[in-house]
Design a protein that fits this description.
Distance between the termini: 122 Å
Structural class: mainly alpha
CATH superfamily of the domain at 95-196: Tetratricopeptide repeat domain
Length: about 375
């Protein structure tokens, strides 16, 4: 037994249990046992990873199927809504888009999508966007708030909630309620920062919206800081020409111009214009907007000839895109009239008075043509 003990073999003096024999065998074969144990651990770990992966894949599949069903419900609902205003789909020719949207709101409020909260939340948000575009910000804001509440119950703070809050905040802005809009838009920014990260390009729009309201409320330095942060994130995410970068440059440039920081403003607005032209061509309305904004700065700096050239380019795009009576067209005509009046006062007898009168007549033409 002593020799057996020293050799790691079972003792003979007492009955041997199965566990006792296994322990002795394991001591004699430590290398083999260690290798087998490592293999077993790897197999178990692989099984756990496989089970977790299978569970996640199954969950993603269920979520994808749910999103597909929700998208189908949304599409069917909107198709039925718009069909009511389309005679070719059996609708009434006298039903306007506004009437169709009224019907959509009524159907939502009477519980047509009860039991499908995610579809209802998405639809309320989409109808809110259309209503705001149609000039009904009050109802748009109410629908957006309802959408935010539904998404919050379903998902907790999420980008969907932030999107609905953003729409509500913009609707409040359209009602000249900047003070009420600010906390709503700040909440949307906070939610997206937590969900996406403080440097994610998905928060650029939130930063710009909050900055816009802060500037309107006189918090100019805070607004400039937010616009600068938005631009930095956009440039990091899109190193080359990109519409988001161009928009951020334009937003910051406009605010700096309002603060008479003309050197910085002109640089940003010129870069924004060049980027928009490279992305959109030279006939897009967004290019006209950039031309108009840069023209204002050049005019402020006394560069009347350059301002005149940019204003006229913007005017041609707006007239071609929107017609002679659109607000954008009339705004540029007014700027050109005032520019040439000022020019005539500074350099009389060079035809600027006649040019100013010409722009004045073009501004008045829509009202004269009205019945």
């Amino acid at each position: 037994d002593v020799r057996n003990y020293l050799g790691g073999r079972p003792l003979l003096a007492v009955p041997e249990s199965r566990a006792y024999r296994v322990r002795k065998w394991a001591r004699r074969n430590r290398g083999f046992v260690a290798a087998a144990g490592a293999v077993l651990v790897a197999l178990v770990a692989g099984l756990v990873v496989s089970l977790v992966g299978w569970r996640e894949a199954a969950l993603q599949r269920v979520q994808a199927e749910r999103r597909e069903r929700d998208a189908t419900r949304v599409m069917e609902f909107m198709t039925q809504t718009l069909a009511g205003a389309n005679p070719m789909d059996g609708g009434d020719a006298d039903v306007s888009l506004a009437d169709a949207l009224d019907d959509a709101v009524r159907r939502l409020d009477t519980g047509e999508l009860s039991g499908h909260a995610e579809s209802e939340a998405a639809l309320r948000l989409e109808v809110a966007r259309v209503l705001r575009g149609q000039g009904d910000p009050q109802r748009a804001g109410a629908l957006a708030r309802q959408s935010a509440d539904l998404f919050l119950k379903l998902e907790g703070p999420s980008p969907s909630v932030a999107a609905a809050l953003t729409e509500q905040g913009l609707a409040l802005l359209d009602q000249d309620a900047a003070a009420a809009a600010l906390p709503v838009l700040e909440s949307a920014l906070e939610i997206n920062e937590q969900a996406l990260g403080s440097g994610d390009p998905g928060i650029v729009g939130n930063l710009s919206n909050v900055a816009l309201v802060q500037a309107a409320l006189g918090e100019v330095e805070r607004a400039i800081a937010l616009h600068e942060r938005a631009l930095a994130i956009a440039v990091a995410a899109h190193p080359g020409p990109h519409d988001v970068v161009a928009a951020c440059m334009g937003n910051l440039g406009d605010l700096l111009a309002a603060q008479k920081r003309l050197d910085e403003a002109e640089d940003l607005l010129a870069r924004s214009l060049a980027m928009r032209e490279s992305l959109l061509g030279d006939a897009h309305p967004e290019v006209a907007e950039a031309q108009n904004n840069l023209a204002m700065v050049r005019w402020e700096r006394g560069q009347r000839g350059e301002a005149d050239r940019l204003f006229n380019r913007a005017l041609a795009i707006y007239e071609r895109s929107y017609g002679p009576t659109h607000a954008y067209t009339l705004t540029v005509l007014e700027s050109l009239r005032d520019l040439h009046r000022e020019w005539e006062a500074a350099e009389p007898g060079k035809g600027h008075a006649a040019a100013a009168e010409s722009f004045e007549r073009r501004m008045d033409a829509p009202s004269r043509a009205a019945p």
